[in-house]
Amino acid sequence: MLAFLVAGVILGVLARVLHHEPDDPSPVLTVVLGAVAAAAAGGVMNLFLGDDLTALTPWSFTSSCIVTFVLLGLLEGVWWRRP
């Protein structure tokens, strides 16, 4: 589970560094969302595969990174934009 959290934090920081504008969400929100999304996605994939909830498998790690990437993109590109 720690690997999922670390991957989420890294992806959150990376998303913040790659796309930073004055009206973007706070860095804390971006990093926390990245960590929570990665941990949840990794855990759900492990449950789907029948593995232990905290097991680190290639499928669970890849799914956690993909889900985190998509959610951070939606946060900064769609949900946070004000009309």
Keywords:
83 residues, mainly alpha, 3 helices, elongated, GlsB/YeaQ/YmgE family stress response membrane protein, transmembrane, membrane, transmembrane helix
Topology:
Blueprint (H helix, E strand, L loop, with lengths): L1 H17 L8 H23 L8 H22 L4
Protein name: GlsB/YeaQ/YmgE family stress response membrane protein
Organism: Nocardioides aquiterrae
Keywords: Membrane, Transmembrane, Transmembrane helix
Domain tally: 1
Low-confidence stretches: none
Report on the biggest sheet: none
Mean pLDDT: 86
Counted beta strands: 0
Helix/strand class: mainly alpha
Amino- and carboxy-terminal Cα gap: 38 Å
The fraction of residues assigned to DSSP E strands is under 5%
Helical amount among residues, as a percent range?
over 70%
- Secondary-structure element string: HHH
Please work out how many helical segments DSSP would assign. Answer: 3
Net shape: elongated
Transmembrane segments: 31-49, 61-80
Keywords: Membrane, Transmembrane, Transmembrane helix
Protein name: GlsB/YeaQ/YmgE family stress response membrane protein
Description of the structure:
- The chain is mainly alpha-helical.
- The chain has one domain.
- Helices cover 75% and strands 0% of the residues.
- The protein contains three helices and no strands.
- Helix 1 (2-18) packs across helix 2 (27-49) and helix 1 packs parallel to helix 3 (58-79).
- The chain crosses the membrane at residues 31-49, 61-80.
- This is GlsB/YeaQ/YmgE family stress response membrane protein.
- Keywords: Membrane, Transmembrane, Transmembrane helix.
